């Protein structure tokens, strides 16, 4: 139905079907003072299965945005009473970056100066009215494809490929902010490091693939043991790190002791039938430290103590 102009090859149709599936999840806000224009755009967007919201001026649009934090595309007219598309775009860009929301400007009086001005203040794209339906669809989908692409890249850049946990980079990016915020309020943030015991022996005895399997298994147990507000990441090799912003330091021992016991008690049955017990040593810092780096250094010293003391234990 939507392929009217230009060549429609199989690849294009497959892309289109993927976009239709994706679009059912996406909210698009149409801002225009003309009811006819809004209806026309909503009808077009409905063909593409978008979830369409409407506003008749800038002020109303800001209210709709306030109620719907997950709008990914705003299509705005230029000339509107109260607040025009230009001012609206400036205001919205203070709240949402180009990576989080696409803004497409539209105008009947569109001239090159207007579109350039609009793009400079943060618009993602510009369409002159009247437009061809297919140009409209192509621009809308291209802008959303870009957002999706950025989102996927950000996801990949923050994760450890093997375990699916956050990676070290993300741990520091987010952790340092959480840590300093808590420090300003003179609240201790619990930071810990764990290291699998005799992991080299597991690799040497059963092979690297089984070593990887153990890392995945431990990663999954760790992921399941913490709350969404806690930061759990693969620090490197067979070491994992934790940052718990909202717990009383006195609770730390109990929390990490429970994890140590859980890992020790969940035996791993290998493809060859052998049964493997995994143990970990954990070093915890629950004192008030001025920086994440210093808290990690304390936790690392505790981890070293735990190893020296015979492994499979929590030290703090
Ligand atoms: P300890 O109890 O003192 O921690 O001894 P360990 O053998 O666990 O410590 P060591 O640091 O000597 O060995 C860690 C090993 O982890 C060495 C390295 O080859 C292995 N390793 C690091 N990353 C990976 C990985 O992604 N997959 C696998 N299979 N092994 C890894
Ligand atoms: Mg208008
Ligand atoms: Mg190690
Ligand atoms: Mg180790």
What does this structure look like?
The modification 4-aspartylphosphate is found at residue 77. This protein is an alpha/beta fold. The chain contains eleven helices and twelve strands. Helix 3 packs parallel to helix 4 (85-95) and helix 8 (199-206) packs across helix 9 (208-225). One magnesium ion is lined by residues 195, 237-239.
Supply the key terms.
binds 3'-deoxy-guanosine-5'-triphosphate, five-stranded parallel sheet, alpha/beta, single chain, 316 residues
Report the portion of residues in β strands.
15-25%
Approximately how much helix is present in the residues?
Answer: 40-55%
What separation lies between the terminal Cα atoms? 65 Å
Q: Please outline the major beta sheet.
A: 5 strands, parallel
Protein name: diguanylate cyclase
Domain Response regulatory: 27-144
Keywords: Phosphoprotein
GO molecular function: diguanylate cyclase activity
């Amino acid at each position: 139905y939507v392929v009217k102009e230009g060549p429609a090859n199989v690849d294009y149709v497959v892309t289109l079907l993927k976009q239709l599936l994706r679009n059912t999840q996406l909210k698009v806000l149409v801002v225009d003072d003309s009811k006819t224009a809004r209806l026309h755009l909503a009808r077009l967007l409905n063909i593409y299965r978008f979830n369409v919201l409407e506003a008749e001026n800038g002020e109303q649009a800001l209210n709709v945005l306030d109620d719907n934090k997950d709008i990914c595309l705003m299509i705005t007219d230029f000339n509107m009473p109260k607040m025009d598309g230009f001012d609206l775009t400036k205001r919205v860009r203070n709240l949402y970056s180009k990576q989080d929301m696409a803004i497409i400007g539209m105008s009947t009086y569109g001239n090159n100066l207007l579109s350039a001005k609009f793009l400079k203040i943060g618009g993602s794209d510009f369409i002159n009215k009247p437009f061809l339906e297919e140009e409209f669809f192509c621009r809308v989908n291209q802008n959303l494809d870009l957002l999706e692409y950025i989102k996927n890249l950000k996801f990949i850049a923050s994760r450890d490929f093997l375990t699916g946990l956050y990676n070290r980079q993300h741990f520091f990016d987010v952790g340092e902010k959480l840590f300093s915020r808590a420090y300003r309020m003179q609240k201790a943030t619990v930071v810990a490091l764990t290291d699998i015991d005799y992991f080299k022996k597991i690799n040497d005895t059963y092979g690297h693939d089984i070593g990887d399997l153990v890392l995945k298994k431990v990663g999954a147990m760790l992921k399941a043991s913490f709350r969404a507000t806690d930061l759990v990441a693969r620090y490197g090799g067979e070491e994992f790190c934790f940052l718990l912003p909202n717990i009383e330091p006195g609770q730390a021992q109990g929390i990490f002791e429970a994890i140590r016991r859980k890992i020790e008690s969940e035996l791993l049955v290998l493809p060859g039938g052998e049964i493997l017990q995994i143990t970990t040593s954990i070093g915890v810092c629950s004192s008030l430290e001025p920086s994440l780096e210093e808290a990690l250094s304390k936790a690392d010293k505790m981890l070293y103590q735990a190893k020296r003391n015979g492994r499979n234990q929590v030290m703090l």
